[in-house]
C-alpha cells in the first residue's frame, strides 16, 4: 500500500537508499553549497520533535541530515523551542501547536516541515503558508487502520460491549431474560457518513461485507460516480443523513464549518435507535449535548475514538454512561501504520529541503 501511495522513487528510498536518492537530488539542484554537502554527507539540520518517531523515518533522514531530537515526554515546549533554532527542516512528530512562536524560534532558514498525522488542526496553516514553507502531512496511509477501528467501534457501540462488561463487573449477568442486552443490527442498515473521503470510503467498503442496505454521505462535493456505484452510496443533505441513518459515522476534518455541527439540534433529528461513531475530530461534536442525548436515550449509543478535550479526564461525565464506548484516539495506532507515517513524513521533509514537490503536501 505504501509503495502505491508514494510512487517508485519513494519506494526506492524506503528500501534503504535514501542517501543516494537525496545526493542525486542535491546534485541535480546544482550550486556550490550542494556540492559541498555531497562530500560531507550531512546536507541539512533537521529537528525531530518527538522521541518515539519510528526508526524507519529516522533512518531516511540521518544519512544526509544532521538530526536533533526532542527527548521530553510529554513534549517540553521550552526544549522544543530551544532545539528548533537554526534547523532547515522539521519532522513534527506530535500534536503540539505549530504556530508563529515555533516558526520565529526556528528562524528564516527553515525550508521544510512535515507532520506525522493526517489531521493538521493543530497547525497554523496560514502562518506557515505566509512564510512560504512547504508543509506535508500523512493522510491516506492511515486509512486502513482507522477504518478497521471504526468498524470495531460501530459494532461495540451498537452491540453494547461496554455496558455488557459493566454488567459482569457488577455481578448483574441477567441472561435469564429473553430480551436482555439487545443491540442494533448492521445487516440491512443504512449507514450515513459525515465526510466521505478516503477513510469514510474504506469504512464503507468494509461494511459492505456486513450486508448493509445503503450508504448515505454528506460532503461538499459529490464523489466519483464509480465510487457511488461500488459502495451503493448516495449524496444527501445533512438533515436527510441524520433522519435516515441507522449508524452515523463522522469522518470529516475539523474546520470552522464542521465544528460543533453535531449538537442537540442534530441529535433530535436522528433515530432513537441510531448509533453515532466519531473517528474525525472531537470538536465536531458538542460533547455536552452528546451526553444529554445519550443519557436521555435520544440516540441509542455512541462510539468515540476522538473527544473534546484530549486527553479526556477520568472524571468526565461521559464516562459515567453505559451507552458510550470511548477510546483514547488510537485510530492509527498500529506498528505498521506508524512506521509508514514516519516514512512519508521523512520523505516529505527531504523533498521540501531540496525544493521538490512533497509526496503528501498539505497545500
Map the helices and strands.
Elements lengths: L1 H13 L3 H12 L2 H9 L3 E5 L6 H8 L2 E5 L7 H7 L5 E4 L7 H7 L5 E4 L9 H6 L4 E2 L6 H16 L2 H9 L20 E5 L3 H10 L6 E5 L6 H7 L1 E3 L2 H7 L2 E4 L13 H6 L5 E4 L8 H9 L5 E4 L19 E3 L8 H19 L10
Helix pairs in contact: 1-15, 2-3, 4-15, 5-6, 8-10
Please give a structural write-up:
The chain has 363 residues and is of the alpha/beta class. It folds into 2 domains: 44-118 and 337-354, Rossmann fold; 142-171 and 183-326, Rossmann fold, CATH 3.40.50. It is 40% helix and 13% strand. The strands form 2 sheets. It has a 7-stranded parallel sheet, sandwiched between helices. Strands 2-1-3-4-5 form a 5-stranded parallel sheet. 42% of the residues are buried.
CATH architecture grouping of the largest domain: 3-Layer(aba) Sandwich
CATH superfamily (homologous) name of the largest domain: NAD(P)-binding Rossmann-like Domain
* Shape annotation: elongated
What letter string, H or E per element, gives the SSE order? HHHEHEHEHEHEHHEHEHEHEHEHEEH
Structural class: alpha/beta
The mean pLDDT is: 91
Our count of helices gives 15
GO molecular function, one term: glyoxylate reductase (NADPH) activity
InterPro entries: D-isomer_2-hydroxyacid_DH, D-isomer_2_OHA_DH_cat_dom, D-isomer_DH_CS, D-isomer_DH_NAD-bd, NAD(P)-bd_dom_sf
Domain D-isomer specific 2-hydroxyacid dehydrogenase catalytic: 46-360
Protein name: Glyoxylate reductase/hydroxypyruvate reductase
